[in-house]
Amino acid sequence: MRGLRTELALLNRRIGGRLELRDGDLDLLELIARLGPMGPSALARQAALHPATMTGVLDRLEKGGWLTRERDPLDRRSVVLQMRGERISEVFALYSGMNRALDDLCATYSDEQLTVIADFLTRAATAGQQETTHLADP
Questions:
Q1: Which residues are within 8 A (CB) of 44 and not within 5 positions of it... i.e. 6 or more apart?
Q2: What are phi and psi for residue 74, nearest 5 degrees?
Q3: Of 21, 11, 14, 10, whose CA–CA distance to 87 is shortest?
Q4: Contact yes or no for 31/46 (Cβ under 8 A)
Q5: What is the pLDDT of residues 18-58, one digit of tens each?
Q6: In terms of Cα–Cα distance, which of 95, 82, 97 is closest to 19?
Q7: Band of pLDDT at residue 137, cut at 50, 70 and 90
Q8: Which end of the chain is flanked by fewer CB atoms within 10 Å, N or C?
């Protein structure tokens, strides 16, 4: 797991460099893409970043064309962050080699084996989320 984590971190750093994004920017964009549009405070909580830090990061990502701030339809005083669709294809293009490699790897396993692997990965992600939450509590 540690080796995989390191290799994925290095891949993300390379891809971030190609896209002229700073370390951590891809993580924020991935959170928005995976969890859906959310406000800056919710994103700061999800990313374990101080809200004041988040403001500068969001300003830079918005200026770079990576996301938009739109009025929250439920609370016009708030904004919702959304990824810009036209930039998502750039990210997918850079991950396409890894996606193909994973498709090829998955093709070597039976459906039953893939079910076990998916279960393990889901449980490992949940354990990581729980520990992250635990460490966030003072």
A1: 50, 51, 53, 54
A2: -90, -20
A3: 21
A4: yes
A5: 999 998 999 999 999 999 999 999 999 889 888 888 999 99
A6: 95
A7: low
A8: C
Place of tokens 């290095």: 10
3-state secondary structure the chain: CHHHHHHHHHHHHHHHHHCCCCCCHHHHHHHHHHHCCECHHHHHHHHCCCHHHHHHHHHHHHHCCCEEEEEECCEEEEEEEEECHHHHHHHHHHHHHHHHHHHHHHCCCCHHHHHHHHHHHHHHHHHHHHHHHHHHCC
Q: What is the CA radius of gyration of the chain?
A: 17
30: number of Cβ within 10 Å: 14
Residue with tokens 């990313």: 47
Q: What is the overall mean pLDDT for the chain?
A: 92
Given CA atoms 4, 114, 99, 35 in this order, what sign does their dihedral have? negative
Q: pTM of the predicted model, to two decimals? A: 0.82
